Amino acid sequence: MMCISTKGRYALRVVTFLAEWPGRPLTKTEISEAEQVTPGYLQQIMGTLLSAGIVKSYRGKAGGFSLARDPETITVGEVLRCTEGRVEPVPCDDADECARADHCATRPFWLRVMRAVNELLDSTTIADLLRDRDSEAAGLLLPGAPFLAGDKLDGAQRAHANALPACSARR
């Protein structure tokens, strides 16, 4: 099962938290306490996000971290790729790397899955996550499903989405 690592999930949480405090640098301690990430692990994550140009840092007494860009311009895909590398459900997307690529009946399916996942990641911004959280708090998200209540899903799609298992938290 494809699962995003702890580093990827924490990075997304940290970026979302920073988006809630525009124009105010937050200290490592503030972020660490709010997101329940150890300071050492947070430092690793912030280094990765700094290198990717997603966050910026400020030195001095009023120092800390803030987003380097507007949350409307930072995508979930960008954050996850800087911490995870490529996001792919199976390793056979590159025909040169897959000995069965020429005759594999399932490869086209997996390529469609990968495209769909990456389209979702690349079309969802950090600002969207905050709006979705607010919609969930207002009861607009379907229970257990990553779809807004207004999304057009037929009964079978909705039942399938609600039956999907949660990703293991072991990572």
What would your notes on this structure say?
With 171 residues, the chain is mainly alpha-helical. The chain has one domain (6-140): Arc Repressor Mutant, subunit A (Orthogonal Bundle). Helix content is 48%, strand content 5%. It has seven helices and two strands; from the N terminus they run αααββαααα. The chain has a two-stranded antiparallel ribbon. Strand 1 and strand 2 form a beta hairpin. Helix 1 packs antiparallel against helix 4, helix 1 (6-19) crosses helix 6 (126-137) and helix 4 packs across helix 5. The chain is elongated and about 60 Å long. The protein starts with 5 loop residues before the first helix and ends in an 8-residue tail after the last helix. The model is unreliable at 160-171 (pLDDT under 50).
What is the topology?
Layout: H1 6-19, H2 28-35, H3 39-51, E1 55-58, E2 64-67, H4 76-84, H5 107-123, H6 126-137, H7 155-163
Antiparallel strand pairs: 1-2
Order of helices and strands: HHHEEHHHH
Q: Unreliable stretches, pLDDT < 50, 5 or more residues?
A: 160-171
User: In terms of structural class, how would the helical and strand content be classed?
Assistant: mainly alpha
Distance N to C terminus: 12 Å
Distinct helical segment count: 7
**Whole-angstrom Rg:** 18 Å
Question: Summed up, what is this model?
Answer:
With 171 residues, the chain is mainly alpha-helical. The protein is built from seven helices and two strands.
